[in-house]
Amino acid sequence: MTIRVVLPAHLRTLARVNGEVKVDVTAPVTVATVLDALEATYPMLRGTIRDQVSRQRRPFLRFFACEEDLSHDPADRPLPDAVANGAEPLLVVGAMAGG
Amino acid sequence: MSSVRVLVGTRKGAFVLTSDAKRSRWDVQGPHFGGWEIYHLKGSPADPNRLYASQSSSWFGQVIQRSSDGGRTWETVGNKFTYDGTTGTHQWYDGTPHPWEFARVWHLEPSLTDPDTVYAGVEDAALFRTTDGGQSWHELAGLRTHTSAPSWQPGAGGMCLHTILLDPSRPDRIFVAISAAGAFRSDDGGATWRPINRGLRSEGIPDPNAEVGHCVHRIAMHRARPGVLFMQKHWDVMRSDDAGDSWREVSGGLPSDFGFPIDVHAHEPETIYVVPIKSDSEHYPPDGKLRVYRSRTGGDEWEELTQGLPQRHCYVNVLRDAMAVDSLDPCGIYVGTTGGQVYASADAGDHWAPIVRDLPAVVSVEVQTLP
Prior knowledge:
The structure holds two protein chains of two kinds.
Chain A: E1 2-6, H1 9-15, E2 21-24, H2 31-41, E3 61-65, E4 68-69, H3 81-84, E5 90-94
Chain B: E1 3-10, E2 13-20, E3 27-32, E4 37-43, E5 51-57, E6 61-67, E7 75-77, E8 89-91, E9 97-99, E10 104-110, E11 118-123, E12 126-130, E13 138-139, E14 160-166, E15 174-179, E16 182-186, E17 194-195, E18 216-222, E19 225-233, E20 237-240, E21 248-249, E22 262-264, E23 272-274, E24 292-295, E25 303-305, E26 323-325, E27 333-336, E28 342-345, E29 353-356, E30 362-370
Antiparallel strand pairs in B: 1-2, 1-30, 2-3, 4-5, 5-6, 6-7, 8-9, 10-11, 11-12, 12-13, 14-15, 15-16, 16-17, 18-19, 19-20, 20-21, 22-23, 23-24, 24-25, 26-27, 27-28, 28-29
């Protein structure tokens, strides 16, 4: 399955991509398997979204899809069908900073 | 004709400043890695076109960049810094044990002889090394597992290993400094370590003369005389003539002996430079005057250097890695400020001029003298 992922601007720069990226994922489609595919395609992103050892999400990043915040869901929980079938992207979002 | 390349790390990117040997007209390239904190970037003494940069962010963590063409293009390399074996604990601010947690790379020190070998000083304090050009990093765990390590505490800026000095005359000798644990020396390539803090006195810790616990801000050496070390401590400028086995204060008549960087003239091992800062709670120059102080006697006797530096309403800081020297003759001195200025002197500090005035806050300055 081809999954659409929207990255924050700094990670698009780091990965040298523009706009959405697409990665091929073998079912089940979960945050963990999408990130596995993303990091395999763009190894420079390793460690920037989740810790390389604990595989925990970096605290200032969030995972959104289908207008839902999935950040606190288990990483191996299947993503919504709309993400799995490519209708909607998985959004990796940086926490807002003010000041 | 020789030239210089100044590598500037800032809170929002890296900049590369280049000039011919006159050091009067500068080309400014950057920002590289815009929006990211660049704690440090440094070139390999063995291959000046090989550069390494520590790029980090509270959002995205640690990235290491490598250039093989003097900073024109960059590629990401390995960024996995995993403590070796049992992580252990150090003291937290409230005195409770706190597990070591990697935060960022503060300092990169390329090997004197091999472009693919680099040492990395990190927060929480530990020393890592790569021997494959940054693709993989391995901890020299003898430092973090030193018997004193459970008593180390972070300073207000974190518990960082910020200084790495490689002894050119003894390849197995490495000096490091940690805030706020102190200075340490290895004589076996980083396998084992000993604290080298005898003679330091710090009023801010329970035992002012303790073996560890001192907030060492920076140490420096001259390549030709690596047994002589100079130190800017939280307060006090210090000197050691026995590779750190003992220290004596050489603050002399400085307007303040608080500060962050210290460096040594490229050709005069007894000529050293510091930037006095008012106090540990007022991180700006005394009297609003940015002054570099020079000692031509290895300490104790100091002269203020002011020509071309702001002498009124100046309230910037100069961080510990933000002073460097080139090896041209006369020796060039470079100072970066938290106000975004990089000042250069092409005559060993007698006269100064800004290369740039409006960069993001400068974290680090390194200089390469190119043939």
